[in-house]
């Protein structure tokens, strides 16, 4: 069987805590027998290759190992390289560039939205605009304007609307994750 490249998007990682440092996280993934283990930034993004296509099983196995070995209780969301490539290739943000006034984010949901609400809900925050929902990557895509002195409480809105089994990454981070994953296993 050939390996598939994945990224584990770990929720609630604080790099200042000793058990949440990249070397400890990578150690857990190495210990599970995954190959090509690497971290991206210091916010809980671990890329790896595995010989399974069952992402639900991977999520459970990783979550259990992180809790058992490091005492980390946050959620684990796994996306394959192909899911992330397809998301990026759709160019959901068009010509927008990531900046303070156009802060681009992808919020990955544990479970797909079924059905996808029409119209898609909009936050009460005037500084935030939902660009769309990508069903393949199970991601809510948004643009925030962070130039005002009061920062929008978009993360709280996301949790109220979609639950706590979510995790948000900047669009730049999504691109950095993909750069760490080889084109083939």
Description:
By secondary structure, the protein is an alpha+beta fold. It has helices spanning 22-31, 55-70, 81-89, 154-162, 171-180, and strands at 4-10, 35-39, 45-50, 76-80, 103-109, 128-134, 139-144, 166-170. It has a four-stranded antiparallel sheet with strand order 2-3-1-4. A hairpin with a 4-residue loop joins strand 6 and strand 7 (139-144). The longest helix has 16 residues, at 55-70. 30% of the residues are buried.
Short précis:
The chain has 185 residues and is α+β, with helices and mostly antiparallel strands.
Cα(first) to Cα(last) distance is: 11 Å
| Strand residue content | 25-35%
**Into how many domains do the coordinates divide?**
2
Global geometry? globular
Strand order of the largest sheet: 2-3-1-4
Helix/strand/pairing class, anyone?
alpha+beta
Query: Describe the biggest sheet?
Result: 4 strands, antiparallel
Average pLDDT metric: 90
Round the Cα radius of gyration to an integer and report it: 16 Å
Order of helices and strands: EHEEHEHEEEHEH
């Amino acid at each position: 069987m050939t390996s598939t490249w994945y990224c584990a998007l770990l929720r609630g990682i604080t790099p200042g805590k000793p058990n949440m440092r990249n070397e400890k996280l990578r150690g857990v993934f190495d210990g599970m027998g995954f190959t090509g283990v690497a971290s991206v930034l210091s916010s809980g993004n671990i890329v790896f290759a595995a010989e399974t296509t069952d992402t639900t099983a991977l999520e459970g196995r990783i979550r259990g190992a992180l809790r058992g070995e490091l005492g980390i209780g946050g959620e684990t969301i796994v996306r394959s390289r192909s899911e992330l490539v397809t998301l990026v290739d759709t160019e959901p943000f068009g010509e927008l560039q990531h900046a303070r006034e156009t802060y681009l984010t992808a919020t990955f949901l544990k479970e797909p939205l079924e059905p996808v609400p029409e119209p898609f809900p909009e936050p009460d925050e005037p500084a935030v605009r939902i660009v769309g929902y990508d069903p393949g990557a199970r991601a809510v895509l948004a643009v925030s304007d962070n130039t005002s002195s009061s920062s929008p409480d978009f993360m709280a809105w996301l949790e109220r609307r979609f639950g706590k089994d979510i995790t948000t990454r900047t669009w730049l981070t999504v691109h950095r994750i993909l750069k760490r994953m080889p084109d083939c296993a």
